[in-house]
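Teaching assistant's notes for section 4

Start the section by putting this record on the projector. Ask students to predict, before seeing the second block, whether NRT1/ PTR family 6.2 will look compact or extended. Collect guesses on the board.
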Amino acid sequence: MEEKLDYSTVADAVDYKGLPADRSKTGGWVRAAQILAIEICERLSTMSIAVNFVTYLTGTMHLPSATSATTVTDFMGTSFLLCLVGGFLADTFLGRYKTIAIFALVQAVGIGILAVDTKLPQMQPPPCKNGTSETCEKANGFQMGNIYLSLYLIAIGTGGLKSSVSGFGTDQFDVKDEKEKNQMAYFFNRFMVCISGGALFAVTVLVYIQDEFGRSWGYGICSGVTFLAVLVFLSGTKKYRYKKGSGSPLVQIFQVVVASVKKRKFDMPANIGSLYENFPQGSRIHHSDQFRCLDKAAVIAEGELENNGSSSPNPWNLCSVTRIEEVKMMIRLLPIWATTIIFWTAYAQMITFCVEQANTMERSIGKFLIPAGSLTGFFIGSILLTLAVYDRLIMPLWNKYKGKQGFTSLQRIALGLFLTSMGLGAAALVEERRLSVAKNFDINTKTLPISVFFLVPQFFLVGAGEAFIYIGQLDFFITQSPKGMKTMSTGLFLTTLSLGFFLSSLLVSIVKKVTARNGSHGWLANNINQGRLDCFYWLLTMLSFINFGIYLLCAKQH
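Reveal the predicted structure now:
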């Protein structure tokens, strides 16, 4: 009878009433799909802004090219940086379910405000006189203030929900049940396929709607479907599985650091076994010799343990060996974390400057004009194609000849970094050719006689790079982190996206300041036909290959 009870309920999960979750009535793929609906809408909204907003800022708001690019990359960077805040709120106060629901609504409101901003004429500066850029009046502070309000409401919504969606999705599967464990093995791949599918719809259908019928229609659709996705998400409330958090990992990390600093003058005991430990035998992590300065947090001072050790010590003064080892595991992730940031700097160029390149090139197929932002569809298509080839061809062959289920997470990241470096080199070569054509025409020529399909190789290579890096990073940070810090590690992974976008903004600002001197346009001119974007791409190519070499050293030492 006891075994039947154990099987019918999920041991570490509860239902919405707080009772043990019934295995047959809660969780599973249907609930995971309801959660993924929120992620798909998040990607719809974010990508429809990311790939096409530069053209709005330059063409309608009359901002300089570099300023427009940094506005978009700062927005994207903030969105992913706030994932750490979202993870903290989920772990400490709200839980994953409430965090997703609240911040998805915030995002929907932000998109709705953006739809209104792009519709009302008073929210935009007057059109350029005589059709020349020299006579354009830039957007004023009030107009840009409304744009920033909507963008950063969207960023807050994205940051709040994104770190919780994948975790809450995996909560719907029980790893102790063999059948559900096998189902969860497919979750991350399907997670990537779903968000890539959402991104592909955004950069094709939604971007076309924005260009042909007005941006307010495109953003209004995003806002509407996000509200609908929230309703779909809430409809599963009684069927979800909920897992209780063990407190904020950030607090636990700070406790170990503070306790070790307080006891920095203490001598380590000769016997490591005398260090404090309160975890059950089956869940303990064995002591390691790295970062031994942290071990002093487990040194037992006089009076800290009373009543034969039955009282709970102050965690800010005394931490267990297992808790310290968890912090050490997080520290070991940092070299890999740092060397994957540069990829997202390259990614930022695919949705900013590459779109500006496309806007100057021949995009016609018969009478149909491809929207410049839709060229990133090749980028998303490359991701989906790479995932399909990897799942259906590479993994079976690798399993047959190597006896392993595909590449390791570190191997996938390495392959992704290499492909991205090659993609940036291809981007530089194409820009050299585009500029050679532009020299023969007036700087205000809107369409140069060079096919936009020359940009496909760079989109394809960087897209294939993302397919390997994103899954590799997600797998690495979740499998190599402690059990109680997996939400924290997901947030840490997402900060690589944030810092990559911020690094892009920083590089753009530095390059613009250094190269635009003595009246020259510099590499990143307001009109890219007057600049040297190819030199900027070559700089990124060099930085990417240097970073790739450093990554190989870090991966070898991990």
